[in-house]
Amino acid sequence: MKLIDMKTNVCIIFSIFCIYSLSACSSHKSSQENEPLFELNVTEAISVDMPYSQLFTGQTYANNSYVIQPRVTGYLTGKYFSSGEKVKKGDLLYQIDPAPFNAAVMQANANMASAYATFKAAESNYKRSVPLARINAISQSALDQAIADFESSKEAVKAAQAALELAKLDLSYTKIRAPASGYIASSTAAVGDYVGGGTAYTQLTTIYSTDSIVIYIYLPVREFLNLQKIQPELSIDSIFSDIRLMMPNGSFYEYPGTYNYTEPSVNNETGAMVVHVSFPNKEGKIRPGTFARVLTGVGDAHPMILIPQRAVNEVQGLTSIYIVKPDSTLFYQSVEIAFPYKNFYAITSGIQPGDKILIDGLQKARNGMKIKPVLIQTDSLNN
Questions:
Q1: What average pLDDT does the segment 362-369 reach?
Q2: Strand partners, 215
Q3: Quick one: 287 exposed, middle or buried, by C-beta within 10 A (0-12, 13-18, 19+)?
Q4: Which residue range is the domain that position 166 belongs to?
Q5: Domain-located, residue 2
Q6: Number of compact structural domains in the chain
Q7: Over residues 133-154, mean pLDDT
Q8: Phi then psi for 300, rounded to 5 degrees?
Q9: 285 pLDDT above the threshold of 90
């Protein structure tokens, strides 16, 4: 009898527990349904016709470099720059002792004055001799001598004038100025050194012009030939498009690049064609010798799926996004990135054009979570 009572009590307790649990679950589900939904921004994946992009690495070089060489020999009396600083075209860089050259100019001036005096005397004698010879007042030989003296003195003046100009030119060369704007290297000579042709200092420094920057792209020959199989009319001069430079912080440089030319021979060490591209650099934001990453379109355009970069989660090398399903719930989806493009990623798998993806609130998002999506136009995300 007691055993039956105990079983009855257990059944009653178990029934009460089940009723309580069902009531709690129902209450929890009801509270979840009544919770306000997060308003989160979403956008649609778009399909764009564009060439496949490839990321190349390289190094930046000055488009032009200028070796500074003294045109005259002499002792260096002044140096007016610091190594590595930016100089402007026309800035004074060095001063060579001008004293000997000033003396040469003075000597040339004296020679010029003497030659001119001789010329004036010969000219006066010539002008007197011509009418006298007409009336046979002087001999023909005297007239010939007057003409010869006149012509000789005239040429002597020209020679003296040339010597004076050369002396002035040599004097001007004692001031060595920057032939172009750019960054200047260290000086090989110091004040007091004897510089110029035939000395130990035939080159003083180098200026690297940075108005534009050149980057070498190494394109493997095999890769180019494979592209030509797909696109027979493709040439090396037209293979690259939309050339962009990625800055060290991951952003894109504001100015697009330009294809310059391809070196005629293949690089022996890499087995690649060397393509030269350049970027404007008036503001001097890019320094020569820095590591560079260049993103460029390769070949003809074809459909690519683009999604905003901010929609992508990257954890331990795996990239994923949240797709917003038709019932406004989130689905965590892995994707494969082909390359970055402006503020977007080109995706090769894991998503279809028109899929809605979450672009904000990724930290609070969870798989299966229901949200109130706010659609943002994809084009507005490119600013």
A1: 88
A2: 60, 277
A3: middle
A4: 98-173
A5: no
A6: 3
A7: 91
A8: -75, 165
A9: no
Compute how many other C-beta atoms are within 10 angstroms of the C-beta atom of residue 47.
12
Q: What is the pLDDT of residues 297-311, one digit of tens each?
A: 887 777 889 999 999
Q: Which of 310, 267, 289, 318 is nearest to 61 (CA)?
A: 289
- Looking at residue 147, which CATH number applies to its domain? 1.10.287.470
Residue 23 within a domain:
no
Alpha carbons 147 and 127: distance in angstroms, whole number: 9
Kindly report the length of the chain. 383
- Would the pLDDT of 5 be above 60? no
Does a structural domain hold residue 5?
no
Q: Are 213 and 288 in contact (CB under 8 A)?
A: yes
Question: In angstroms, rounded to a whole number, what is the distance separating the alpha carbons of residues 337 and 328?
Answer: 25
| pLDDT band with cut points at 50, 70 and 90 for residue 34 | low
Q: Which of 9-18, 194-203, 294-303 has the lowest mean pLDDT?
A: 9-18
Of 245, 246, 228, 247, the residue nearest 237 (C-alpha): 228
The pair of structure tokens assigned to 291 is: 């590591």
Pair 159, 289 in one domain = no
In a domain, 24, yes or no: no
Residues 111 and 225 in one domain: no
253 and 283, same structural domain? yes
| pLDDT given at position 197 | 93
Verify that 75 and 53 share a domain, yes or no.
no
Please check whether residues 237 and 360 belong to one and the same domain. Answer: yes
Which secondary-structure segment (H or E) carries 152?
A: helix 140-172
Identify the domain boundary among 154, 173, 192.
173
Asked if residue 100 lies in contact with residue 152, where contact means CB atoms within 8 angstroms, the answer is no
Q: pTM for this one?
A: 0.59
Q: Is residue 344 domain-shared with residue 246, that is, in the same domain?
A: yes
Per residue in 222-268, pLDDT tens?
A: 888 877 776 777 788 878 888 999 888 778 899 999 999 989 888 88
Cα separation of 170 and 72, whole Å?
A: 7
- Between CA 212 and CA 313 the distance in angstroms is 36
